[in-house]
Amino acid sequence: MSPDTVFSTTSSTAMAGWLLLILAPRWPALIGFIRCGLIGALSLTYAVLIFVYFFRVEGGGFGSIAEVRTLFLDDPVLVAGWVHYLAFDLFIGTWIAVEADRRGYNRLLQAPMLVATFMFGPLGLLLFFITRASEMALTARKA
């Protein structure tokens, strides 16, 4: 399978997960499917790409920005890095959704956090933490 095909397939898989997470009812089976099915498939794809291609990149590594740049000049390793983002962002988005449901946050409040996590990863997590801290401060003030 070509790197382009893996890129397209994993991107579509992650997109399906995000649409389910944002728009569908959050049944336990759906959350389990996203976690074990979609995120699991993305993680397996990542593992295969890393084990097959990572150590083949001469001069690549994590010791300097030049080594990281060299890694990402290789298409299969670049796709592995992309899949890494897809899997982790969807995992964090799922955690945010479950935690936000547990705290009783409205789905309209959750949507911007989830979209920000989908598009910009840590930015969505930061929005969730700010929202949670605000809620906790308001709750403490009322008590």
UniProtKB/TrEMBL annotation:
Protein's name in the database: ABA4-like family protein
Transmembrane segments annotated in the record for this chain: 6-24, 36-57, 77-98, 110-130
Organism: Peteryoungia algae
Keywords, ordered alphabetically: Membrane, Transmembrane, Transmembrane helix
Record-linked InterPro entries: ABA4-like
Pfam families in the record: ABA4-like
Keyword Transmembrane among record annotations: yes
UniProt keyword Membrane, yes or no: yes
